[in-house]
Predict the 3D structure of the following.
Amino acid sequence: MAAVRKVIILGAAGRDFHNFNVFFRGAAQYRVVAFTAAQIPNIANRTYPASLCGALYPQGIPIFAETELARLIREHQADDVVFCYSDVTHSHVMHLASIAFANGASFALLGPGDTMLRAGLPVVAVVAARTGAGKSTISRYLFSALRAAGAKPVVVRHPMPYGPLDRGVERYRTSADIVGADLSIEEMEEYQPHVDNGAAVYAGVDYSAVLERASAEGDVILWDGGNNDMAFFKPDVTVTVLDPLRPGEEEGYFPGEANVRAADVLVISKVNAAGAANVDATLRAARKLNPQAQVAMMALEERVDRPQLVRGRKVLVIEDGPSVTHGRMAEAGGARAARLLGASLVDPRAHALGSIAAAYEQYPHLGPVLPALGYSREQREDLRRTIARVPCEAVLLGTGADLAQILQIALPAARVEVEARDRSAPSLANMVCSLLEQLRARAGRL
């Protein structure tokens, strides 16, 4: 009988748990001795719950900081280190492989054949080359387009289990659902715009159960990806979003390059904000990796709900957190919307407190904007206190979460709403609907 192989899973509270659930949970030939956590605060020093671990793990599985990897390999005499998170450079992955090798362990990646679940419904997956490319905006556009075409799409969001880890399946249909769930700001800024768009949103930790529930509610699954990760469900149509404001990053990040290569449709987003040279460079780089995919050019147009609060004033801009932190953008749509209204951006960096100040140290590329970080109650309080210290006349929220209500911001606050618009023909909606029709036609011939 072969010896049981001891495994450490490197993760960031998402892909790692999914890969465990579908590949390792019932596999007696492996024993997962630890998860590690990166990118997301407050995940380390917790336990992946026994209720989701299966019979082989009655005590659950401990989660450690990734910085402890070398010690964990030696202490557990681990055989395998498995990398399971996203939006990192290719060199980042290989540095971790080198740590594994130096301490005697093998290093592995699990691919789609081992981790993607098969749905009984058509799956349209919206993924990206990098975080912050505009996936959620494109997902909302496609939800509306599919519904207008007579379909019943249901949105499934890449996991963000930043609170309790035992929520196997989550469903959000109303703002009250979101407010009552004790979610992080990061979760709210992803779910709220979908709910406002009329969608039911599924997420959670156990995506086999999520798939079963979501499949009973619609006739098309619309996967809204996280970071630049691949979908958890095998897609029938893969839509990969590229950011021309960051040309040259199409093939340098994992697993974003795989998303570009796997795309049926490549979306060049933000063409209204990027110069023609950057759009052309992005297209040429994507075409080099995937010459067969269709290409759609999309504008992501910002609209401020109360422009009179912003126009010509000194404004604090709060941006979507992941886009400007590990997404490495100096600023995002909030700053662009403020400048279009002639506002002056007040730099919040000197006024940051606690974990917000620490974030500026961790991400020195950040510009004169405030990342909407709120992974815990303590961090939300740091964010609230930081906002109160900034000497501005108004706050502009470039995040999908209603921070004015959540944090009870005393200053006048306006919100940026972003809408995707076609800038090429045929439209992205026509491309995706045509691919789904071809899928149905093939199925009808079987």
User: Anything to note?
Assistant: Residues 307-417 form a domain with the Rossmann fold fold (CATH 3.40.50). The chain has 17 helices and 21 strands.
